[in-house]
From TrEMBL:
Domain of life: Bacteria
Name of protein: DUF115 domain-containing protein
Length: 286
């Protein structure tokens, strides 16, 4: 009886979430979405986790053979002008904050990009005069806005919206959104690097019972701490991590439905949705 009631409740939730998603798309999404296509059958996504340093040393030739995606603040690194990624994906609305470090990332993109590159951002960001001001004199950078409208509900409905760029999975982390966009671009194989996702190891309470989160990227020499100033409980932090990892499950199911293979080639990673590979062994085997 309990299982039956749970099944009924799940079915009702699916119907409700599907109806809500339809209204969200109708009210929030742009229906004239520009689509870009893959120039190669394989791409690589460069996360900013510390393990990317290992991948850039160990797997650099393989990485260079892929059509590359960079994310977030990759543009502030020396590797940006060395690897010249064809694609750059951002999602965080901090890129609209003139007092945030993200401003530095935009400035580097605008000044350092001497090759043709597609820059993907949500429509909300694209429509910002502040954001646009960085790229008014950058002929090498093509701005490609996308809908960030989270849809849930029946799988067939979600995938219908996904394919048309009208809806997306929840992207608690920018790599989820990048993976999703890469799948829609038509790549057959996608390789992820630098996706450590070891945040749970860096959450702690200080002596005054304040929640503190350490953060580190591949281009930083040491960790730095972020004090969560507003009232926050450990459960909320862990729920955020759940949403981040669950996003990979949704993208993984969508990629599988389209016959797209996603490989996690990160030297260190807690993502367990995709096949984990070591590049040298994988290349020799294939």
């Amino acid at each position: 009886m309990v299982n039956f009631l749970l099944s009924v409740q799940q079915s009702i939730n699916l119907v409700i979430n599907s109806i809500i998603s339809v209204f969200k798309v109708l009210l929030m999404s742009k229906f004239s979405v520009e689509r870009t296509t893959a120039s190669k059958p394989r791409c690589g996504i460069l996360g900013n986790g510390p393990s990317l340093n290992t991948s850039l040393e160990r797997d650099i030739e393989f990485i260079k053979s892929l059509e590359l995606f960079a994310v977030n603040l990759f543009s502030v690194t020396e590797q940006y002008t060395q690897l010249k990624p064809r694609n750059y994906f951002i999602l965080d609305m901090s890129f609209l904050n003139p007092n945030h470090v993200c401003k530095n990332g935009l400035q580097h993109m605008a000044s350092d990009t001497t090759w043709e590159m597609n820059l993907y951002m949500p429509f909300q960001m694209y429509n910002s005069a502040y954001f646009q001001s960085f790229f008014k004199d950058t002929p090498n950078i093509k701005l490609v806005p996308y809908n960030y409208t989270i849809v849930t509900g029946f799988t067939w409905l979600k995938h219908w919206f996904f394919k048309r760029g009208l809806g997306t999975p929840q992207c608690q982390n920018v790599l989820v959104g990048t993976l999703f966009y890469a799948v829609n671009m038509g790549f057959k194989e996608i390789y992820i690097f630098g996706a450590d996702h070891s945040w749970h190891e860096m959450i702690r309470l200080d002596d005054d019972n304040n929640l503190v989160v350490s953060d580190k990227h591949f281009f930083q020499q040491k960790d730095f701490d972020i004090a969560v100033k507003e009232k926050s409980y450990m459960s909320q932090q862990l729920f955020s991590l759940h949403k981040a990892f669950y996003g990979y499950e949704v993208v993984g199911q969508y990629a599988q439905a389209l016959g797209v293979k996603i490989y996690n080639a990160s030297a260190r990673s807690f993502i367990d949705v995709f096949e984990k590979i070591k590049v040298n062994e994988f290349v020799n085997k294939n």
